[in-house]
Amino acid sequence: MIPAPFDYVRADSVAEAIAALSADPDAKVLAGGHSLLPAMRLRVARPSTLVDIGRVPDLSYVREDGDAIAIGALTRHHDVANSEALQAGCPIVPYAAAQIGDPAVRHVGTIGGSVAHGDPAADLPTVLLALDATFVLSAAGGVTRSVAASSFFTGLFETALAPNEILTEIRVPKTSGGWSFLKFNRRAQDWALVGVAAIRSNGGVHVALTNMGLTPLRATGVEEAVAAGADLAAASARAADGTAPPDDAFGSAEYRRALVQVLVERSLKEAMG
Amino acid sequence: MTQISVTVNRTTHAADVEPRTLLVYFIREQLGLVGTNVGCDTSSCGTCTVHLDGEAVKSCTLLAVQADGREVTTIEGMAETGGPMHPLQDAFHRNHGLQCGYCTPGMIMAAASYLNENPSPTQEEVRESLEGNLCRCTGYQNIVASILDAAGQMATKG
Amino acid sequence: MATTEQYIGQPLLRKEDAKLLAGQGSFIDNQSMAGMVWMALVRPPYVHATIDSIDTAAAAAMPGVLAVFTAADLQGEWAGSLPMVWPITEDIKMPVHWPLTGDKIRFGGDAVAVVVADTRGQAEDAAEAVVVAATALPAVRDLEDAASDRSVVHEDLGTNNVVHWNHGGAGDQEVFTNAPVIVQERYTQPRLIPNAMETRGCLAYGSPAAGEFTLVSATQIPHIARVGHSLVTGIPQNKLRIIAPDVGGGFGSKLNVYAEESLALALARKLNRPVKWIETRSENYVATIHGRGTLHDCTLAGTEDGKILGMKFVELADMGAYYQLLTPGIPELGGWVYMGPYDIGSYWFEFTGVMTNATPTDAYRGAGRPEATFVVERLVDAFARRIGMDPTEVRRKNLHAPFDEATPFICGLSVDSGNYEPALDRAMELADYTQFRKEQATRRDSGDINQLGIGVCTYIEMCGLAPSSILGALRYVAGGWDGAEIECRPFGKVVVRTGTSPHGQGHETAWAQIVADGLGVTPDDVEVLHGDTSVSRIGMDTYGSRSVSVGGEAIRLAVEKVRAKARKIAAHELEVAEDDLDWTDGAFRVKGAPDKARTIPDIATSAWHAHSLPAGVEPMLEGTAVYDPPNFTWPGGTHICVVEVDTATGKTAIVRYVAVDDCGNVINPMIVDGQVHGGVAQGVAEALYEEAIYDELGNLASSNMTQYLVPSASEIPEMLLDRTVTPSTTNALGVKGIGEAGTIASPPAIVNAVIDAVSHLGVTSIDKPATPERVWRAIQDAKGGAA
């Protein structure tokens, strides 16, 4: 099918976009559109207005900024995956970006769109959660606020973004230690059935999980066990603690809980090895 | 209606479109370039792959308004009219890389974009690059062979 | 035929390719007409419900809408209901199937209304605006649940058990209770969605005043569809033209007479406008036929030393909510290959077809034979495990001895020719069978997380549908012949009209090879036309791996007729007797004076200007043949798959895939290999990825391409192919057919390999598709309870 009719607003600035969003409570932001347009074609999403931010200047970049790397929200997965700054300074991010969808999707889909969509099955939110990334949200009047990844993802397809805010930048710390990103899917183009991001940090490890609950989750049990000196197998046994994975025809919760333990153990070996 | 101007296969077209018009239907129905096919409604199959500013994209998952001011290349733009086939088209022919031919334009556009990024790929890399392009006839074996063959031909010709 | 074969057997590049590579295919969605309007169907979100009311007023008032019709509005349009042409038993129960349903919704694709509007988007918008009030009824999805008649899909039939077919068995049935080894297994096979890359679609137009109509449709069967849609719409066959343009794959899913095609014709007649419909992919998943959907109870009787005494199968087959064109015939089609390529003494097969609240099933690549081969080959492996014998040894011990004349098999039909062991040997060699067995033992000993498995399938299949007399005996209402017309134009070009209707199989090239050899011209001189009932008048279309062995043989016979006529003209012009001419090097030559010769282009020119033809010879050099095969053709072969299974996650990777097929003589080996590649890929999909999944309410959960896992090049392995050649005795070309072999042989080879990889852990069975979760669960269960 084709999408249901909607009004189209092309924003030339963040301010224009925010104004348009504020004018229509059923408006949606269009960045690359690779989460939104498929839903609109199936008519499970039918926003009354699309606010196209695709041409807002200066939102596509990767810049080093002290101990952090700042990524513009409109930076495409393809550009994230091929960013030399990220490959050198925070390699888990480009590695994971290269596994999103397929090459054509990565040529259009953006990091900001992926984060703002709030899909617990998506790859980058998990990685950003493990990294303790920070998201910069912009509101009217040039007001911005920073939200930690740990408090950004609030529910299934729900985030801390207010209706009149736009995600404009993602800030990740530079990392130097071991890391691992394991995406378990059946076809290369699929979303993860379960995914794991692990980042070694100050002797400990940060572990985050894809598709194990309504939001990307930190595997705090694993992190605590590693910090307490548990061996990797024992730590991994806690991978499913506190999770609430989907239980559906595409994967039972029981299987996902078992799978996440296997993947976390492999991931820890890669990151800590 | 929204006015857009899109350069398709080196010709610039100005047109009024309904905002909900998908790029693929703009190309097919307003410009009459029907070589780009549609195979699904979930961005899964890659049948509709075209180039946007030189890179493979799925034209069923872009609005025509998103292509305003940009350059699109479709299968019809791969060879000059009356001129020789593009090396990929030729390689698909020589290696029996197509059967029903429905996925073929998308496959060729995806492969052309990929070979721009990686001119001498391994078989495994070619297979990975096609993760978003489905074919039901060929089992991919001869598609992969065609792309590797074309890569060799294009490298030789420099 | 020709004294030299210059083109037959050669890997000629395809004549079809140029336009497809340029994006100039004539696919249905590329066709439009002045005044054309768009049709959209209203398919409410129920799988079983009584319709209380349908309010079309809001939809009818929407922009661009010409009309909205319900079943009641259109009842006067129909001369008959949608046809099912294979009433396989005398007492089969026949539900009526209208293009729109008026009383009840019986499956997710059951349309209750149709909208016609100026544009695609307006039609889709208006279809959404039709308000349907319905009362949900309990849905039946599970086959045994359906068979219990807890909830009946068609009340007027009184039961869901609509057909029971019994092969009748052969040989001593006592072996199934008193043999030294009895193996009993139960296998389920899920529904599969065919997923031709092009969905269905059609464009109907014509003249209501003249009563003449044309339907352009993405169909495999323009000739059969003409008969079918004439019966449904009442448009006489001589005023109904069906055109299959370039068709983007079929695999059986376009082997049907569909409601939407009849609706488009009826609306073109009613509205006097060209009416177009293009199916969306998500719509395709509920509205286009599915394949498979079976439950088999299986018994093998054997001896401790590996001899199979007999095999017995009792099947429940999912018909879906209605019959489509061939629905109940599909399990029966498998009913002739439950012996596999084995020489066994006892045979039993029966099945019950049950109605369920799901999309009708029908022919999907292989149609009955994959279902049969899967359970036979699983059962043979279970037997091998039971008696502790290598699966290749069990097979070798039971393969039928070679034969080169038609030979009766236990199923009751005669097999045209067969030599099965060489394919097994060659496949084992290509697969490094012995080496992989060693590697498997090493990994088992070391307790490696990644375990190797090797799976084998030795198969036979029945194709080349079909001798019309046998079809008649099986209560199929039509014949199995096919037609060919050859027209030699003056100065050397040849036009061929074939009754087959290719949609990727390369008939334009392969038929040109046959004609070129037979007439002493080049394939470039030959143009093969097809897919239009007004162009290729005589045809039975393309399905069931029939095209080369029936349609190709018809081409060869038409070539012979052309040559017979040409010989008369050549003899006349060369002033010799016909017997004094040899057909040598592409020309008729006078015996002893080979320079005195006439080529087909010479003779075609003479026959065209007709200035001096022999008495009694009509102008134009042409020949028509309609060929009815005396038997089916029976390909066979061996496929071997090596897999690596991650025992912690259950994920399977194919390490090696070998296919050695025997399809008789080969016209174009490049095309044959391509058919095997595609067939195996669909088998890999069936074995590891694809299944139609339903939720507890009976709704299709795998409702689009993100959830129904059609594999990509990243998932499909490179395949190693080879062939053995045992010419068919059914036709003079000696060809058998190759369109379905890959899909028939590969699922059991792959699933057997997955089970083999974890059998040392105690796993004896894994359902298809062998998903990571199913494999993981089987391992957990074998360990003694899930983790």
Give a structural overview.
The complex is a heterotrimer of chains A (273), B (158) and C (787). Chain A has 273 residues and is of the alpha+beta class. Helices cover 33% and strands 25% of the residues of chain A. Chain A contains 12 helices and 14 strands. Chain A has helices at 14-23, 36-41, 77-81, 84-89, 92-97, 103-106, 111-117, 123-130, 149-152, 220-227, 232-236, 253-272; strands spanning 7-10, 27-30, 49-52, 62-65, 68-72, 134-138, 144-148, 153-155, 158-159, 166-173, 179-184, 194-201, 204-210, 217-218. Chain A has a 5-stranded antiparallel β-sheet. In chain A, strands 11-12-13-14 form a 4-stranded antiparallel β-sheet, with helices on both faces. The longest helix of chain A has 20 residues, at 253-272. The termini of chain A are far apart. Chain B is of the alpha+beta class. Helix content of chain B is 34%, strand content 16%. The N and C termini of chain B lie far apart (45 Å). In chain B, strands 2-1-5-3-4 form a 5-stranded mixed β-sheet, sandwiched between helices. Chain B contains 5 helices and 5 strands, in the order E-E-H-E-E-E-H-H-H-H. In chain B, helix 2 (87-94) packs across helix 5. Chain B has helices spanning 23-30, 87-94, 104-117, 123-129, 141-157, and strands at residues 2-8, 11-17, 49-52, 55-58, 71-73. With 787 residues, chain C is of the alpha+beta class. Helices cover 29% and strands 24% of the residues of chain C. Chain C is built from 21 helices and 28 strands. In chain C, the strands form 7 sheets. Chain C has a 7-stranded mixed β-sheet with strand order 3-5-1-12-9-10-11, with helices on both faces. Chain C has a 5-stranded mixed β-sheet with strand order 7-15-14-13-8. Chain C has a 4-stranded mixed β-sheet with strand order 18-26-27-28, with helices on both faces. The longest helix of chain C has 28 residues, at 547-574. Chain C is globular. Chain C starts with 16 loop residues before the first helix and ends with a helix. The chains are: A alpha+beta (273), B alpha+beta (158), C alpha+beta (787). Chains in contact: A-B, A-C, B-C. At the B-C interface, helix 2, helix 3, helix 4 and helix 5 of B face helix 1 and helix 19 of C.
